Amino acid sequence: MTDQSALIRRQVLFWSLAALLCVVMLWVFSGILLPFVLGMAMAYFLDPVADWFQRRGLSRLAATVFILVLFIVFLAAAVLIVVPVVGGQIVSFSERLPEYLDSLQALAVSARAGPLAFLFTGDELDLKQDLAQFASQGTGIVTSFLGSLWSSSLAVVNFVSLFVVTPVVAFYMLLDWDRMVDKVDSWIPRQHVATVRRLARDIDASVAGFVRGQGSVCLILGTFYGVSLTLVGLNFGLLIGLFTGMISFVPYVGSAIGLILSIGVALVQFWPDWPWVVAVAAIFFIGQFFEGNILQPKLVGASVGLHPVWLMFALFAFGTLFGFVGLLIAVPAAAAVGVLVRFALGQYLHSEMFFGRSPLVDPARLEARTPPHVIRSGVDPEPGA
């Protein structure tokens, strides 16, 4: 028992140091990792498609070339169609932003003298100063955030190298994906190979389920918001809708930001025709209803196990540490950590640290004292736990 405990401690120390070394390397090389992370992500999501073509007689090389060429063609077509429209709206919105802020300020001042006067304190000068300070702080936050992303990720790797290196990395990663997985599998300690494989399958299911499912949700919501806001005649409706869909992977946050932006633009554009403002707000409430009751349960499901608060913390933490690259790896890292934490908790709830040292443990008593959520999760203890 002593030798077994010493072996476990040495393994824990070894893998803890290995994980720490990986984190340090990510932090040191975060400025040049963007094309490699994007290439690896492309290979990860396209590997099932390559396997499908292989099962139908194509070689791995032919399947890889065909998939990447098709993917790049569709991506280039989407960029050529969407980017000019969205780029034009971004330029127009940035030019008219000061005008919108002045108009909102004038609306707030007029509301202070109307039936909503009880909501405002202080005189008119204080209100203007507060609104100007709020707008200045908001603009400063967005500018500093975008500047940090640029300096941390794109200062070293410019757009040209990004579009050149990423397809090359994706090609070689997709071509050798199965061999790399088999090689890593051969490095796993044979004593824990079954447990590590099960954890890897759970992490893969969690990452793929969330990213693919939530990506579909974001695409559907972005299309719905963009088309609906454009149909009601809202200025920059397509831009606001696509932006809202893009950040909807954080539940409620994306819709809230999109609602605030849309209501602000609608007040300036439509007031005093308040029914159009109500129509803009109704679009977001309808979208939120479909997201919570149809899209999320059907496309993402409850088995992913990523709580919105944990997801937001991971995005802020990885974004702070690694910049834009951190934002890309935050979701898979959060999913992996979630799986590992649930596994560690299941091990603890089946161990002597939870039940206490006893020569005999009745299985019925063990199951009765095990929390229901652990039984439902199907976590199996390792032999000897």
Topology:
Blueprint: H1 2-28, H2 34-55, H3 60-112, H4 124-154, H5 159-175, H6 177-186, H7 193-231, H8 237-246, H9 253-270, H10 274-300, H11 308-322, H12 324-349, H13 352-355, H14 363-369, H15 372-377
Helix pairs in contact: 2-3, 2-5, 3-4, 3-5, 3-9, 7-8, 7-10, 7-12, 8-9, 9-10, 11-12
**How would a crystallographer describe the biggest sheet?**
none
Structural class call reads: mainly alpha
Q: What global shape is seen?
A: globular
How many DSSP H or I helices?
15
Structure description:
The protein is mainly alpha-helical and 385 residues long. It is built from 15 helices and no strands. Helix 3 (60-112) packs across helix 5 (159-175), helix 3 packs across helix 9 and helix 7 (193-231) runs antiparallel to helix 8.
